[in-house]
Amino acid sequence: MLELLREVGVELPGGAGLLKFGMTPGEVLELLPPDRATHHRQCMGLTLDQYAELRHAHDAWLGGLLFEPEWNFDAELDGVVLGFGGGGPGATDRLARVEIQARRQPDGQADGPEATPVAWDDIDLFGYPAAEIVAVLPWAGAPPGGPPLAEMAVDELGLRLSRATPTTERWERVTLVGPESGGWGSCCAGGLVCAEQGDGLVGIMY
User: How far apart are CA 86 and CA 107, in angstroms?
Assistant: First the structure.
């Protein structure tokens, strides 16, 4: 089980250790099994200094589109993929964002072993239908009678849940934002606010 700990980080499965907000990239890599970590080159993402407006960079950061050279790696553990991000302007060298994505099986391939549970207060965020998760997470009430959502932010918990389409049964990605994300303070107050006004694709997709 990966246990999400607000203000702290992520407890890795199998006693592997605790990913703490504020860690450097080197400290995170030391904690991860070397054979499960993969480094990536810059592709579709822009770096922080290539965004004219911080709110757009913040939105890209929340969505995993911002390329941060120090954090150009992810790790696959027990059926989920972990991505990492620094803390925004002036704090890029400290862990402030952990993204956990359920690994999807290629079309036509038999289902692999069940992914390890990703738990918030013992609630498996990938293990139950999305509507049931929304119903039990504190502060996560969806508008009654409204259409299903492909993405939802729970500001008070520092959580962001998303799935490929609103009709996908379960959440497929969760982002946990920690207190070390304060480097975005020059952009806006609050860890998840910029996504309402920003556009992380500015400068990437034309």
Answer: 34
